[in-house]
Amino acid sequence: MKFSALVCALAATSAAAFAPAVSERASTSLNSVDRRAAFGQIAGAAAAVAAFPQLANADGAVSAATVNRARGIYGDRIAALKSAVEKGDLDAIVAEKNAFVLFNSGAYPTAKSKQQKKAAIEGTNAIFKAIKAGDKAAVKSAYNSYVAANDISPLPAVDANKGQGYSGDFDFRVRTKAGAIYVR
């Protein structure tokens, strides 16, 4: 974003620098444009753009929809680990480590949810600390407390004859068990 703004500013100032002056009569000579003046204007514009980096501030597209999407996608993956936790299959949990990381960052993206995110990360660390120790009972306990503290539940299965689970192709539920749609 900053780079594109810088390029646009440089292009605008360089175009203005090489434009003929209105008060002067156009010269046919190739030396009619002073390179020092042109590059001085370009450098001045670059310094002005660099002086205001806060103008190119993005929020990372944080909205209720993106939080819901993260909770739906990664929360469902975490909820699906329940049977692996019950069996004591630690490798299956380790294979889904990214689901925990992405859930923590996606479900709690704002500064307002900083404490919740910190608690979720501590819960994730407790799960993987127990996995590293090989303590299946501690993994089960840490997993259950993590799921309860973060209100994680699996996506509901929707029957296409009884309801509709999504309404657009870009909904995260499209290719899941919650993604049924009634078609006549």
UniProtKB/TrEMBL annotation:
Domain of life assignment: Eukaryota
Domain Photosystem II Psb31 protein: 61-152
Record keywords: Signal
Record-linked InterPro entries: PSII_Pbs31 (IPR040933)
Pfam families with a match to the protein in the record: PSII_Pbs31
Keyword hit for Signal: yes
Signal peptide positions on this chain: 1-17
Protein name according to UniProt: Photosystem II Psb31 protein domain-containing protein
Organism: Fistulifera solaris (Oleaginous diatom)
